[in-house]
Amino acid sequence: MRLVRYVGLVGTVLLLAGCGRVSTVRSTLPPSLQQAEQHLRRGDIAAAKQAVDSHLQKSPTFDSYLQVLALWSSNNQYELSAEYAQRALNDGRLKLNSIEEAQLWQIRGDSLGYLKRYDEAAQCYEQVLKRTPNNPLTLNNYAYLLAEANIRLDEAEAMANRALAAEPNNPVYLDTLGWIYYRQGRYQQAVQLLEQAVQDAPQEPELRYHLGMAYWMRGRLPEARVELRKAANLWRIQKGKPYEEALKALEQVEKGIKAEPQRERVDL
Fold first, then answer.
1. How far apart, in whole angstroms, are the C-alpha atoms of residue 241 and residue 8?
2. How many domains does the chain have?
């Protein structure tokens, strides 16, 4: 899904929920969480949770939870990220203010979006917007969630435009609106926005995938082939695994097969 930021004393966690692109900018973890990370790298999730729970018992603070959420997300543990965001929201020791609550709802929503639990994610974004109604990040990510589910596209378009009004040069927000246009069948408008997004963020494989798909729908097979190949290569380099959606589309493009509009929808 869409690029998001978890902001706290731990730094910033960047999560592209829904397609698996994650990078992190974190301060040094305390020893107990370093130990948890070592457990995760060995595949011992139970031991990692035990170390995390011990840390939170000794240091039940908002910033400690943010560190834990950064740990889970940077290791692709989105179920746990969603779970521990909810724990933080329920932890009366934290005495959260509305901004902190909004941040935790955002993290939970983005994690659930990555897991394609769209209905639950949408409910989280509604909670964020109750507290910060003009939050461009939330508007963008909610809009992208709806585009991924292929529903309520007019509402998604309105939210994406609000996000872009706040940050008109944000390539991720441009990509969101372009992908909504794609879902609406407005392929030429999609191409225009997605070309700009890729120009501003050429190393983002998902943006190139979206542009390749829009080219394909416009019948521009050579350009579609280039973008889908770049998307697949960048994904493999960054994630060390195949970009299945891009490779599947590329196979069809290589055969010269004409694209057909996608109709799949998810009920929320």
1. 30
2. 2
